[in-house]
Amino acid sequence: MTTTTPFRFGVVATPARTGTAWLDQVRHVERLGFDTLVAPDSIAHGLSVLPALAAAATVTSHLHLGTYVLANDFRHPVLVAKDAVALAVLSDGRFELGIGAGHPGTGPDNAMLGRTFDRPRVRVSRLAKSVRIIRRLLDGETVTTTGEHYATTDACVVPRDTDLPRVPLLIGAGGPRMITLAGQNADTVALGIPLDADDATAAALVKVLRDAATAAGRDAPLELNVNLMAVGDAVPRYLADRVDPTALAASGAVSVVTGPPQQMADQLRERRERLGISYLVVSEELMDAFTPVLRILSGE
Q: How many angstroms from the chain centroid is the CA of residue 82?
């Protein structure tokens, strides 16, 4: 029997310039009924994501909070796990850890840290080691490991007598090696697909993902995530001069929904049926346009 993964909906929000504005934004996302608020990771731009999410936890009660996604090269995995524990405790189990190997735009941030931006194969190998360390630490293990990328000695990050809820792991993945890594390790996979990717492109990635999960002996269903780039005629400002939502919709792009709210809801139901995509996020600029769709599909 095929199990349908319930829909979830989130907002990708960049921490605002003031604390008051950020917390007002967080409260607004929760009031609208979204399931998650996730924030990107950058050194050059915006506020530091982990303290911003900690602050968000103090003014919400049921909104889940996550990173979308941490750049693995910025932090040692032991420190990532330690911060994840703190956020899981402070949010009463509402924190979701998203992590990835970094994209070309993070190269200048690596330079700020005095680190090279290595070729994809090296970054993916480093992430694979990092993910294994983080998962073991979050599961309460003490980890000693050596190797090319990281070394730890008797690392443990869960305080004694702490009843830590399980921290779900989201991995952002686009290429075959990243997709395979995500299939082996992630609870949620953020599909890093091109703006114009259609069903066939997405389906090919999903097959690699599910094959990797099966080969790893994983029984639990994977949650698949896509960041919607257009809701009707609305697109984020940074894409406004580069994206024609009508043309994308005509090409069958899975990162777009069009029409009135009921039609958009039907499109997402059909994609969940065909591809298994059940977790959709939109930028903060699109959340008001998407809210009517959320209200139709909430609970399905």
A: 19
